[in-house]
Amino acid sequence: MKWERLPLGPLQTNCYVLSNSEKEALIFDPGGEAPKLNNLLKARKLKPLAIFLTHAHFDHIGAVEDVRKEWGIPVYIHKNEQHWLQDPSSNGSQLFLAHIIQSSEADEIIRGEGKLEIGSFHFKIFETPGHSPGSVSYYFEEAGVVFSGDALFEGSIGRTDLPGGDHAQLIKSIHEKLLNLPEETIVLSGHGLETTIGQEMDSNPFLNGF
After folding, report:
1. Cα separations (Å) of 24 from 12, 151, 195?
2. How does pLDDT run across 131-162, given as a tens digit for each residue?
């Protein structure tokens, strides 16, 4: 498996494309600029199987509708934010953007943690709330990567001052779910560059004591 980072949308949020040797692909957090993402997929001759959302803030969902229609693939989201795709006040676009972002309902609702298989991909879903109530992380043991959304960044953590945010809950999520992964696990965050679990355990100022 290999991954590719593509910053998209008004905040240049990291969208990721994870692909395998069979040219199947999973898309994580298409935040905007759907043509740019679709063109990359076509150029790589990839076959997308699904869109997975780490959470439903506007900067992570801006291209969901156009990409879903282009490829005819399902969208996965956690149950705690399943209505945010249709609600500009919940996803933040009504407050932060000059235009609202809306899409139709997600096709698949994540109702808890566990293992998931799609195509030849096998991975685990962790509930990692705190930045938002429905934040999840996707861990691919074989590839040694975790898509953490806005939970954990290089040298930082997600903001918790937005509706539904909870700092103590976020710290607990990071400690109990993410920091228990192997230290060499690559963390693919919603913003910024990649890091590793070990690096954040050693140097992240928000995680002192862990």
Report:
1. 25, 27, 25
2. 999 999 999 999 999 999 999 999 999 999 98
